Every structure is written in C-alpha cells, then in structure tokens.
Amino acid sequence: xxxxxxxxxxxxxxxxxxxxxxxxxxxxxxxxxxxxxxxxxxxxxxxxxxxxxxxxxxxxxxxxxxxxxxxxxxxxxxxxxxxxxxxxxxxxxxxxxxxxxxxxxxxxxxxxxxxxxxxxxxxxxxxxxxxxxxxxxxxxxxxxxxxxxxxxxxxxxxxxxxxxxxxxxxxxxxxxxxxxxxxxxxxxxxxxxxxxxxxxxxxxxxxxxxxxxxxxxxxxxxxxxxxxxxxxxxxxxxxxxxxxxxxxxxxxxxxxxxxxxxxxxxxxxxxxxxxxxxxxxxxxxxxxxxxxxxxxxxxxxxxxxxxxxxxxxxxxxxxxxxxxxxxxxxxxxxxxxxxxxxxxxxxxxxxxxxxxxxxxxxxxxxxxxxxxxxxxxxxxxxxxxxxxxxxxxxxxxxxxxxxxxxxxxxxxxxxxxxxxxxxxxxxxxxxxxxxxxxxxxxxxxxxxxxxxxxxxxxxxxxxxxxxxxxxxxxxxxxxxxxxxxxxxxxxxxxxxxxxxxxxxxxxxxxxxxxxxxxxxxxxxxxxxxxxxxxxxxxxxxxxxxxxxxxxxxxxxxxxxxxxxxxxxxxxxxxxxxxxxxxxxxxxxxxxxxxxxxxxxxxxxxxxxxxxxxxxxxxxxxxxxxxxxxxxxxxxxxxxxxxxxxxxxxxxxxxxxxxxxxxxxxxxxxxxxxxxx
Length: 676
Known about the structure:
There is one protein chain. With 676 residues, the chain is an alpha/beta fold. It folds into 4 domains: 1-16 and 491-570; 38-99 and 262-488, Aminopeptidase; 105-259, 3-Layer(bba) Sandwich (Glucose Oxidase, domain 1); 576-676, no CATH class. It has helices spanning 2-14, 28-37, 40-50, 60-76, 177-187, 232-243, 293-315, 335-343, 382-401, 433-437, 468-487, 493-515, 522-539, 549-565, 599-604, 606-611, 624-633, 641-652, 657-669; strands at 80-88, 93-94, 97-98, 102-114, 121-128, 143-151, 170-173, 192-195, 227-229, 249-259, 261-270, 275-283, 324-330, 350-357, 369-372, 423-425, 445-450, 582-584, 618-619, 622-623, 673-675. Strands 1-11-13-12-14-17-15-16 form an 8-stranded mixed β-sheet. Mean pLDDT is 93; it is low at 13-17.
C-alpha cells in the first residue's frame, strides 16, 4: 500500500512539469541579463589576489584582504561601502561569542638537527611559517626547544604515555594539538607538539600523504604552548625511524603572541527603492589559512561577483533598482556574524540571508556542490525558491554538456563545461548560516556549499583548483535568488504557491519512506509535523508579500487533501509525555557553540557537557551538534519537551525524550532557558 501511495504522489508531483523551469517565477529577461553579466573570470581574478593572504581573524593579512574587497567594491560603485569594527581582545562578549584576541605570528620554524661541536647543526626544515603558514597550529604561542621526539599516538589516554618519558621532549601525535596540550605539555612537561592530525576527514584524507593540515591549540588556552603541523607522509617516515630505535633531534622556535586589537569587516549595499530598510543579505566568511581558495575565497568572491553583476546591470539600465536593499558582508567565520547581528540596530529588517562557503572546486577537488535550505525550526519558501533555481541550472548545464543547444549553459570561457549536478538538501550545519537561522534571530535563507573537498583545510587548497564556471554559476544562483526576494510582491504569490504545492507532494513521498524506519507512535507524529511544517512554509510568504487569507486557506486545503491520504492509525498504547514548556532568555543572544569559544562549555563545565546525551548522539540524518542546535531552536514558549523531541525525530530520526529533557534542563541551569 505504501509503495502504491508513493508512486501516486510522485506521479502527481511530476505531471505536466517534466523539467524545472525557474522562468515560472523569474522573468526570462532578468535571467538572461544575469547570465550574460556574471563573470567567472572576474571572480577568479579577485580570488587569485585574496589567496595570497593568510587570512586569520583580525590579523594584518585578513585586513589586507578586507581592504582589497573594500577598494574593489568602491570601484564597482555600490551605494554604501564601509568597514565595521569590533573588539578582538579576548574579553568582550558579543552575545554568546567571546571575542578572541588577535593572534600575531612573527616567526616559526621547525628543523631536524644533529649535535655538533659548536651546537646543533641543521639537517632539514620540516615547517616554516613564512612559506606554509598552515605548518604552525593556530594560536600557538612563543617557545623554543632543542629536543628529541617521542611518539604518543593519539595522546588522549594513559596507555599512550605508558613507559615513555615526555618531559622536555617534543611529542608526535595523531590528535589535534588542543586535544593533547593540557596532558602532554601542561601535566607531563613536554616542550611542544608535532601533529599530523586531519582537521576534516573525507574518503581521501589518507590517500595524499603530502598534505599539511590545519591545526588548533585554542584561543583561550589553559596551557600555553606551540604546535607544528606536518604531513601524514612525513609523520610515517618519522614513526618508521623511531620504531627502528633512532633518536630524532629537532630545534623548534616560535615567536607568536595573543594581542588586543580589532576585527575589521567590509560591508556594502545596493539601496532599495520603495523598501530600503528591508534587506536581503549575502554573507561568506573571509578568514582561513593561506591559500584557502575553495574554503572560502570562492564563496567570498562569488558574492562579490553577484554584487558587481547587480550593480552593473542597474547602472546600465538593464535592471531597475530593487525594491528592497541588498547587502553584502565579509566577516570572520561564525564569530563575525554573531558580532554583526548582536550589534545590528534592527536584525529583524534582514528578510533573508544567502550564504556561500566553498562553491568553486574543479573536479580534482572531488567537491560535491550542494544547495541547502534551512532547518525545520525556520520554515520558509526560500529553500523551494533556491532549489528551483538550482534545478534549472542543473538541467540547463546537463543538457549543454550532452551536446544540446540551451539558453543558459552558464559556462565561463576559462572554466569547465561539466554539468553542475548540485544536490539539494535541507539542514546542513557548519558555517555562518547557522547564526542567521539560530533561534535568537530566525532569519531564513539558503546555503551554497561543497562537501566533501579533498583539499579542505590544507596547503593544497589553491587557486589552481578553482573553476571560473563554478564561480559564475554560484554568482548567478545567488543573484537570481536575491533579485527575486528583493522584488517579491503579491503578484508573485500564485506561482510560488503552485511551486510549494508540487514540492509538498514530492516531499510527501519522502516522508512516507522515512516514517517506515520509525517506531511505535512516531510515524503518526511525523506526518502531523510534516503538514504543520508545510503550512508554515506557505505562511512564510507573508514576510515578503501580501498573502490573503483566502489564498492561504486554499493552499492549506490542498495540503489537507494530501494529509488525508497519509493518515496513520495511532496505536492504543500510552507513552508518557514530558509536558514541560520552556521559554528562551532574551538576554542570551546566539548559539551555544561558536568559533574558538563554547558558551555552553564555559557556563556548564566540560565534565557536565561531556555527560549530556543529546550532543553526542547521531543518526543517518544528523549528528548531535545539529540535534542540540535544533532542540534550542524549537523552544518557543508553546512546544513541550515531548513536542520538541517529536520535531527532532521528524528532522533527524529517533531520539529519546530523556535526552532532550536532559539537554534542555542543562540550558535552564545556566540561564539560557526558564520554565513556564
């Protein structure tokens, strides 16, 4: 029966609409103008410049990249181009984000040496800050040592140190430096750390052992130390020599410090005509170690190209001035977005956010292009809009690659001609869009990104691996979505309602398949939540355009017909429910975890945090981080703990009410929530 229903729903959804065609929503002349003006080459030239800078938060090279973007924007002629400044002092709290101090590095080298009559003699250099900044772990501090090497493996358990003398030695570890520094250096007296840990894991992380990966110690260290990062291949060689009984001597020297300074972020705006105080936002994150090409010079230069494109078309008279303003922001990842929203005069005027983080990888990167909507806690039609634009680009570029004539091949002359083949998803965590979606602000939007990328957070994330065609397509998708949202009126509502109806049918098939995996009462709860979420998507149109009650009721009526096909008998089994209702403390602004600082860990304590169930669970559809994020987002003063658990099940799969209750109680204990 379920299989038959699936086939019926899919057939209904696809009838009369074999190909995605965003021209049902956006005027073809607008699309033609955007496609003709966006330049992957222009974006790539700017990227080439940016990747020369080691763009660590609030550092001098981050400022240099910021200044470049500022000057380019002025040349493009945008209405407003300015610099925003925030404290980088290690003290100031911006909501739940503690400002991190400036990390200033003047010198760092690691040499293998041998004893000689007049002191250690250099043999070979393994790490050098000037040539490969990634070779020094972020937030390393000054130190100098001539010491032999000891392999401690992971360095996180007692057995890793058994029978080994590490005092005064350099320790070799497979873990991130921050995971071992307190034990190895703070307790046992090691002189410093050499790590070959991956910062990100993917299927390819062990296949290219030349890569030097991004390491971290911590912006608020309890143990001050330094750590060098070496490649897996280099680590294997050292381990072989140690296993053979060889004593390996190194000289390490680091001159680095934490200082007080400022974050400087560039912002720009195209002022709207009739509704200038309402804004559509573009964001990226400008910071990352050199070269940091796909992550995230690509996203930053793609939104810069969207700015150039829209301004150029307005200046040429090809497009009118948008009704709402369009703003661009180039902050440091996550922490910068928190600072901006906390200090913003009225975040509610941000109607939507379009975020790009890694959007330019060539085939060599193995990057998979994705367009993610929002979490279920922030229902919006914007995800449907973005997916419709993306499906159109997928279709046009695939047919062009197949040798057909199409109106929108969207290729850059210096780029590839591969089809986009973007995946379209729901929630996907891990960048600044998390902050805009977060329950403090609940700003809807979309997230353009690539995962996996074999070179992410390594010295091989170079400009040579960036495809101008990908940059052009990213700028096009972003500009098209922004233009639609900036100009959306009541006239656009019928076509959007039609899109939502068709997509609800498609999603119904997914829900039917999903609920087969769930237990007991969950399938019934999932179905009801699905339709509540779909109704909320329809209602979200009111954020941008008039939606008369008659139109809303008609659209909701179509959902009700679909709902009747999916009714699930509720078993006559009583399962106790937790009817506790929480409301959020309006004085605690932002997420529980940010970059370089965890508000939750700081207030709750590492041991208590480690004992919580929810942040450490995972399902096929999400991990504990996302579950904990959404659990807080679902708190609205109306949902009970059991209601929140049901919504989490609808989004991620089975999770216990006990785990949810425990997590929310922990948030209550530190003043983030209070009971009603």
